[in-house]
Fold each of these.
Amino acid sequence: MDAVRVYAPGTASNLGPGFDCLGVAFTGKGDLVTAQRVASPGVRVLAVSDPLIPTDPARNTAAIAAAAALRRSGSPVGLELTVEKGLPLSGGMGGSAASAVAGAVAAAAVLEARLSMSDLLECALEAEAVVAGRHADNVAPSLLGGAVIVAGLDPPRVTPVRVHPAVALVLVTPDYRVETARARAVLPEAVARGEAVSQAAALARLVLGLERGDGDLIRESMVDRIAEPARRPLYPGYDEARAAAFEAGAFGVAVSGAGPTLIALAHWGIAASVGQAMVEGYRRIGLAAVAHPAEVDTAGARVLA
Amino acid sequence: MDAVRVYAPGTASNLGPGFDCLGVAFTGKGDLVTAQRVASPGVRVLAVSDPLIPTDPARNTAAIAAAAALRRSGSPVGLELTVEKGLPLSGGMGGSAASAVAGAVAAAAVLEARLSMSDLLECALEAEAVVAGRHADNVAPSLLGGAVIVAGLDPPRVTPVRVHPAVALVLVTPDYRVETARARAVLPEAVARGEAVSQAAALARLVLGLERGDGDLIRESMVDRIAEPARRPLYPGYDEARAAAFEAGAFGVAVSGAGPTLIALAHWGIAASVGQAMVEGYRRIGLAAVAHPAEVDTAGARVLA
């Protein structure tokens, strides 16, 4: 093969009490990376569909991850990449992670390198570390599909969580940006013991609620006591959209990643109307927003035919 | 009915990352409370098998819980209780909680009062609050059986966790006491953010490991980052018994409740030998200990025929 095109899905991380450790891949939006094998060594980026994203291979996550895969393969050839972004920059939908995953998988595929899932994860993590910090909670679900708990970092330990098929994901993105660095700067250094215990209990209950498709359990448990209290002022319209989601029957709402995208969990039968209600919640305070009702993407990154 | 005899199982709480929120009932050891209906109002304790436990009804958990049930029933009669302790005082095996649960259930049964599970839980919690602090992580599994996550307190929200039948519980009690108050006094007031995230991820993984019977997942996740680092010096022999348990093939080890009992999780086929190894670990540093290999008690508190 001389060229391979790979799709990696968008992901929502920080699902409520799953702050910094629970991520889920969603259907319908993702990034595409085409990798072409060339004789000249190194990795170059021929084009990126989003002009805000650098083509400099040292700052482009697809290229950094592809270079890591190339290095691991031991191959003397080079790669030329084309990146088609389906995910927004700084949106909270795992865009940098999806490009990194697609870059790593495309490189491995076109080089016919036998890299394991944990090799590919490590390649994508190297890239994510450059632009967004070394966190695997977007990279892992984009690579593997589904929902995952990520524990530790060296190496990251990834535990799949089965999400009951009745549970849909509704992503709603208001028309403003939040820099990840700023969203991390407001985080508290320490957490009161009781809040840490509550966070742990809530995450355990959320994971059981996801596996069982138990809406009441999700509703009760989907509360983040670590990041969200500090971050809430960064997200105009969050309260209004959240209230609208619950009124429309959602199980739970959280800021996805560093935001501003929100993710609501809801029964699949009402996902579209929950999305509309949230958009309307933003509109009432003068903010435009778009809704993306989705399912869990259980396939993860894949080579396209 | 004039008299009712109720058994409530012992429980292990604080299972590693489940500090203050995950408890499990075990088979083979528990407390028995016999309640007799009498004309004279109020609750009296006729006898307690353990002379260290007060018969004063204001300080006896079975009596406090029975009085709470009596009050809720609206009945004008009184109760006389006999308490047979199968669980040690200050052992970390949920003794005060089991007596409280048995007292509440025996009172409700002998009074033929229609109290719900949450009523009974509240009665037992009132008693537990007097002697051990208001925590439901022993009371709830003793009442309901099985393993439970407890979130919040007013009211406590109890989520059952299915423990795969391959997973056995091994309780090992060394021959010394640790006061619950002292074990709580050493707890940190606050936890670093990263540790709080790790604790939450570990508890979610532990719960999935218990449900799936996945020994590797239990082994990786059964680490408490909040209480255990501070408490470890209170438990001579902990390190030795823990190491011996892992050498014998245990999935994980934690201090049960406020200790000194340790709880190991292991495949049922090796539970007895894990217990022996842990006893031997204590013996090597000159401490006597007894092992109690058990299964999960899935029935919880029950009226005996």
Amino acid sequence: MGNEALLARRFAVLGKHSPLFYDEPLHLVRGDGVWLFDADGNRYLDAYNNVPHVGHCHPRVVRAIAEQAATLNTSTRYLHENVVRYGERLLARFDPALGRVMFCCTGSEANELALRIARECTGNMGVICTAHSYHGNTAAVVQASSFLSTPEQRGRHVRTIPVIDPYREAGDLSEEALAQAYAAEIQRAIDAFEADGVGVAGLLLCSGLSCEGLPDIPAGYLARAVEKVRRAGGVFIADEVQGGFGRFGSHFWGHQRLGVVPDLVTMGKPMGNGHPLAGVVGRTELVDLFAARNPMYFNTFGGNPVSCAAGMAVLDVLEEEGLQENARAVGNYVLDGLRTLRACHEVVGDVRGSGLFFAVELVGDKQAKTPATEVARHVVNEMRRRGVLISRIGVHDNILKIRPPMPFSTAHADQLLATLDDVLGGL
Amino acid sequence: MGNEALLARRFAVLGKHSPLFYDEPLHLVRGDGVWLFDADGNRYLDAYNNVPHVGHCHPRVVRAIAEQAATLNTSTRYLHENVVRYGERLLARFDPALGRVMFCCTGSEANELALRIARECTGNMGVICTAHSYHGNTAAVVQASSFLSTPEQRGRHVRTIPVIDPYREAGDLSEEALAQAYAAEIQRAIDAFEADGVGVAGLLLCSGLSCEGLPDIPAGYLARAVEKVRRAGGVFIADEVQGGFGRFGSHFWGHQRLGVVPDLVTMGKPMGNGHPLAGVVGRTELVDLFAARNPMYFNTFGGNPVSCAAGMAVLDVLEEEGLQENARAVGNYVLDGLRTLRACHEVVGDVRGSGLFFAVELVGDKQAKTPATEVARHVVNEMRRRGVLISRIGVHDNILKIRPPMPFSTAHADQLLATLDDVLGGL
């Protein structure tokens, strides 16, 4: 069936607003590693999707899902080895203070649960997030997703702090100055809550500032801000839905790169390589307090044997194929290449990266740093036409977002860089 | 590994409060059709789980998941046949006024989304639910789950109506009198909202009153109540998470049995036979209005090719194996058997059923109808020891909840009934 006919049928069942990538939507039929194939047999290098974390259709994950689905799939109201073994393996990846895990199915559910735990355990309602955050699509989480919500929707229980962007801030913002600036913003939010009679439940932050397009923000910026939140009675929730599971190369979790032990950590997208699997890891006493008060808290599909088999297979592949180290090494290789492109192309204002997570900021003028939003849109679509999939992000939607599956090699990097060089050269 | 060692390890990762069935938890290792097997090789008749809707590990569903997982699993931001075909097949099961579907992963997410649509499209916040409802575990949904929330947690935007229980109401409550009583309760809730200055967004109701233990409530009770809600500016959300997909035998959806076309329908548990799959089906203009206002609404895993393959395989099996008709026929057979048990056992106060959904209310005295809560607990555990899995529910937790997978046969029914007869006889 042609794409237009399929699109018309899609509109008839999903409506016209269900989001699609690219001006010319991509009709995919097959995936393999870092490759995607469309209905006409064209091949695309996937330099965007972090859900197929260890590669599209990794045979080990597929086998784990298929075998367990054929054996047993029930809820955690029965005893089963998988949820216990997976829980043990997952917790071994965290600071020992984080001793409990609760499983659910999506990043939205993980952030919902973390907000419930934070609010019920602190007795406070106030949540601080950044001014361009996205944490999911459920009502309470949308309020803390300033990327999509209006101040009216956020109400009096959510306050945002500005995104402090080292590229756009006045010249010499040292790491120390950045840390001070963030701490001051947090203090301002706390003071504003207090003036409103609202207690602070916590700070909810993506560990890679993904929606802000700041994956390489200096590690030190967070510690002092978190200290202020805790002194005000709140907790720190690290959202690892985008950055977790080794993507940053140097560390398995983004919060480890930032040198802070969170009170709660949420995870999702890459966790089951596409199988709907998510979770909250938290300080033992915090999770136990919430669970004691809510003994009927239950997630029907969360932590089921199939989901946990998928999760364990992802950990197996990450370990056996050395994918975190690959993210570090290939990440550096790509970053070098992007810096070369910045030197060659007037439109590339800034290049940032951490492991296999990159932001390429396009500007109309390198001095004025005017956001080149329409150029970014054109580049994303032109890359797609030339067989490389990326997207864009940021306050001005002018930042190329590059976040490939973890088995991305230097050969794949060369194709990405050469295609981007071509597209930028043709502007 | 012994159950006690596994339980200790489970406590260490999930904490002690993660809910488990039965005084002596069941360590399961395998499932097949209506059968579950524990680590010691014991076999159990599953007369409780509605998630493995077409039977545990149905080979057709397993194959669909395995094949699609090996081929492609991406999000709905790309065009794919599966989400379109599944959407078409699903919508064909509804009144034509319900023309759009939005996919997500869990019943909680479906009810979250339905509440968001209802509230954003009506411009009102007030939600009416029953006094013993459960709709999920996210913050907004917990507020409408009076089974778990306190009046303080529900706040001023959620009001409950009493569960009108024909068994416990004074003698001759005709269907007409019941309909009038429900309509009057709805009106009371609407008036109370209005006195508070809160507009009515909608009525959220499980189509089988599952948590109330009233699967056979007379069909006519709902129409007048819904009319009042609509006149007040609200919508009707039918929660089909427990009852949907043919369970009631006479109809594919619970709301069809009740003769009302909802504005929004939520579905989950049985939809993917255990694969995390859920959705909202709604009136075309309502969903389109919400989607136009929230064009970035997106669910990463919702409607992906694997989930939709699982969903289509469930529909295939339901159709090819005639499972809705089986639910009707075997449901009547079980109901007859339960009525015989009621005649023989003083403790069985009432027996109710609709298709393969049964409620057996245990009482200390048939005249006084005193809830036999502890007896119900004992019966559930004793049934488990004798190899038949059921649970309990209801305002007083004294109602045996029997809700087997759909391929339940008369032979399985005979085992269920004989075992229950034995257990009740041994009280």
